[in-house]
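re: ur question from yesterday

yeah so i grabbed the chain u mentioned. its 310 aa long if i counted rite. heres the sequnce exactly as i have it in my notes:
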Amino acid sequence: MGKGLPRKILIVLILPCAVYAIFFALQPKRFGNLQTLYIMFQQAFLPSISAWGLCFVMSLGLYDLSIGAIIILSAIVGTNLTLALGTGVGYIWLFIGCLATAVVLELVNATVYNLLKIPSMIVTIGLMILYETAANFVGDAVLPYELSIFGRAPYNIIAGAAALVVAYILYNRTQIGMQIGAVGGSEIIARNAGVRVERVKMNGFLLCGLFLGIASFLSVSYGGVIIPSTRMSSILRLFPPLMGYFIGIALKKVCNIIIGIFIGEMVIIMVVTGMVTMGVPTTYQQVITGLFLLAVVGIATKAKTDEVVK
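ran it thru and got these structure tokens back, copy pasting raw so excuse formatting
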């Protein structure tokens, strides 16, 4: 086991190192400096936190397409709550507002899913539209600059690292995490073993809400301004976490999925940053990112299939 650990670490590092090496060779001056790498490291935490939340839902075999709308609405509510109650203890109110809103919205997702008994994809698409509408009723949110320190280093790194530790413990070291894995593996077997499947699914959505609340808190801290989405455009916020999750699945054989997700998000940030430094037009960036997603999904699907066969 001791001999296998260095080999696994080497395999895990191959993907990010290969991507970095490619863009370093193409743009050594603009891409190959420590400051750029440090910025990409910081940027990887935000989608990773959303992906860790999504992991608790998708490990159940479910989908949540509303996470972008939840992040936006939670950030708007949290910011407005902070402005209404005063900025004296603004960090506390902002965090509480974002976290509570996200958890409540995921509670709605879980309740509607359990009541209607229809595919989670359909449920969350419908609720996504409702959340976008609610955000437009509330309006834009502008966070005062003095309250946005969690959008800058080292505070964003500290928050991201804390979220990673919490996600790792919840997913790997708690009964809830084990039950989520059991239900995702086989709902029938889990039910026969006495697991309350509906409650486990509820817990999966609630844990997702926990991390989406943290993501919304950091998101408004990064940008300072949150603008409501329309016409389902909030789904664009789903793709980076989703891609990170699938890369985490692909790396699951050699590292824990929570760590794999962060590595996946680092790779995605590298690809996007590399294309920007090369001056690749936005349209081509989307095409390349889409192809990259298809390749990752294909690898992850094969990895999952092989795991089931074994």
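noticed a couple things. The beta strands are 141-142, 225-226. also The chain is about 75% helix and 0% strand.
anyway ttyl
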